[in-house]
Amino acid sequence: MTPFPxxxxxxxxxxxxxxxxxxxMTFGGFFDALGTGILWLMLNIEKFFLWVPWYALMLxxxxxxxxxxxxxxxxxxxAAMLFFMGTLGYWVLAMQTLALVTSAVIIxxxxxxPMGIAMASSDPFEAIVKPLLDGMQTMPSFxxxxxxxxxxGLGKVPALFATIIYAVPPxxxxxxxxxxxxxxxxxEAAHAFGSSYWQILFKVQIPLARPTIMVGINQTTMMALAxxxxxxxxxxxxxxxxxxxAINRIEIGRGFEAGLCIVxxxxxIDRLTYAMATPRAHS
Length: 283
What we know:
The chain is 82% helix and 0% strand. By secondary structure, it is mainly alpha-helical. The chain has a single domain, classed as MetI-like (MetI-like fold), CATH 1.10.3720.10. The protein is globular, with a radius of gyration of 22 Å.
């Protein structure tokens, strides 16, 4: 076998390390302040979920599922899933996981929807952002843990940061696609009636693109939930940490219980957000 010549090898790893060192030296104060703000958001969301009585949350989820899916038994089934998590002793951990996912989704939507709108409004911007989104979605999720650790240290904040990077691309893509798929005839009619850019955006394009945007929110939420086990490696608590402990200690039953609770959370979140994204037959 003929080896590849070492003289033409590119030291990309050293360049990336040098860039990260420069970022830390230059913007260390900014990332400290950002981490403090993100931690405040996460802790308050987690406190809220832990403050809500278990029976109240079950009732809200059951009624919401009945309302959006229009079947009483779906509400009963989802409430039963939450009750089952409590019977396994994982209620607090499930609420911690839900807080992490909720925080990641809130920040992802705050970043992703405006960026998707900007992509739909500018072809050059779309051409620049699309390769970045491809890289974010194809890069192994473990790689995100490294810059998160360097910027924020161990704990909830780097776990949230890595989750956002992994979860934000779907809502950006589908917001862009949804707005671009709005009929040009409808937009031209709005122009003809003297509507401004912002009026067309908020009163025409976004309402018509709502089902597609909601699918993006659904996918972002599910991808955030898929990161909980990986995020537990750098300090995130919750069900993912239980799975990680079960792997380290080879406790099959413990891992199965925690994994089953993650599956139940995924089913509840997926079904509710999908039902909200799907237009009803009578509407």
